[in-house]
């Protein structure tokens, strides 16, 4: 997959650049230096720092961050804080952080073939109007180690109590596809908050073993948003229900 990504980059974007990194300082520099169409390749190893993206790719010229599962990103607060559009996050691991991957105001991104585990709170959070993203073919487990009631596998939007200026968090049209979520996800496998709309939750496999029950976390999916398509998912070991739909 790594060679294919670079090959396609060379064919499609003659001015694209590949940034090969092997430690946290090189990764920090690459995240600031990238341009649309570029690729950042992670060598196997541990990367611990405050990693934030704020450089946008473009439609048709995404920025790609790629590595193997042995490339492990972590941070004291967020493992990976993504605040940019048109990126592909591919192949690597995020672990041993307060929160796993947090998307803030980040749209039109693809997250695929990732592993997120050993997280104190939620694994992956789409918030602050992060829309039109795809999370697919990833494995999320062992979350909520420090705060079980806030240990969702995937969290879409924001609770009304966290809305800015009393305006809904329009983290809309996000797609959660073909993922494996659980075991040891302490809250819901997927929590969809009020104010968000029109996403797709499809072909995921849930394992509720280790669900804590705190903050009413007793189902694989908790839905307060509107207009969602939820189909062809399967799972086992829920505390109470597979899906709970709530009017908020």
TrEMBL record:
Keywords: Signal. InterPro entries: PbH1, Pectin_lyas_fold, Pectin_lyase_fold/virulence. Residues 1-16 form the signal peptide. SMART domains: PbH1. This is Right handed beta helix domain-containing protein.
